[in-house]
Amino acid sequence: MDNSQHGPRTHCHSMLEDIGCLVLRRAVPDDAMAALQELVTQRISAAESALLENHSERIRLGETEFMFKEMSSRGGQRFDLLVDVPPPLLQRIDATWRHLVADTLGCVAADVHCQISIVYSKPGAPCQDWHSDGAHIQADAGWGVDDDRRSPDLAPRAAGGSVVCRDGSDASATTATPSLPSHAAKQSRAYAVCVFVPMIDLDDTVGYTSFYPCSHRHKGLVGFGPAASVLQTEVHGIVPKGSAVLYDYRLLHRGMSNQSSATQRELVQFLYSVPWYAEAKNYGSEPLFE
Question: Does 212 have pLDDT greater than 80?
Fold first, then answer.
């Protein structure tokens, strides 16, 4: 999983495709991290102030689950907050992995869509259950099966949520074939890749993300995340500040608890996706800041 030297792109691509996750240690330059931290701090402060000023009568931060257009709760002191990163800064941040992600998605870098959010866990945040962020909306990646023998899997998302194509159609609302490009039903490459960049050094106290390697390759593993611990295949994403943890959107994983007394665990998540895919399940429609 670890490619500390940021080795050849083809090698990293193979690791990400086969194992489903990859670490690039200290991938973001220090000056870019400093600028990103300023954005993160300002955005969290503005969001929590808006919650207090506009929604305190119905929302208790850390207790009430909620979904706004810009922010959602993840239950028990865990939050997801959209943030805009200026393009020049984004280019500084993701220069190390931008083309690697595009290779994995089978796109040119200019066609890859990127949604950026802050995922943060306050002290006391519990472990998440095992889950995948995205469903197997195409054929399984499988093990050693030729592409032309794979049957398209376009049934509804098993783990909840929805898959919305960029033409506005819902790919998970029906078992009928949705309006995806013709090649989408025949190929099983990743349609989305997440990149986590921790804003602090991760350890057993503040927590980290744990992964079930290769679990992106078969939809039958959904619901069997705990097997990773039993089989001793669980990979702990304990990495230094400024590293990049890349993973296939279908990979099983879980955020671990924040057992610290006063340290907030902040990650910036870059969700890269192919042009025809848009994520629509993580946020609501009600504005937070109005």
Answer: yes
In angstroms, what CA-CA distances link 48 with 41, 64, 171, 264? 11, 13, 34, 14
Please, what is the Cα angle at 142 between 136 and 147, to 5 degrees?
95
Contacts of residue 34, Cβ cutoff 8 Å, sequence gap at least 6: none
Give the N- to C-terminal CA distance of the chain in Å, as an integer: 43
Order across the sheet with 209-211: list the strands.
Answer: 235-236, 209-211, 253-255
Query: Could you tell me the sign of the dihedral formed by the alpha carbons of 186, 188, 190, 191, in that order?
Result: positive
User: Quick check: 223 and 138 in contact, CB under 8 A?
Assistant: no
pLDDT band at 235 (very low <50, low <70, confident <90, very high): confident
Is the pTM higher than 0.85? no
Structure token pair of residue 237 = 């994403």
What does the CA dihedral 17, 21, 22, 28 come to, rounded to 10 degrees? Answer: 110
Helices and strands, counts by H and E, the chain? 5, 12
Token pair of 106 as six digits? 């089978």
Q: Is 56 helix (H, G, I), strand (E, B) or coil?
A: coil
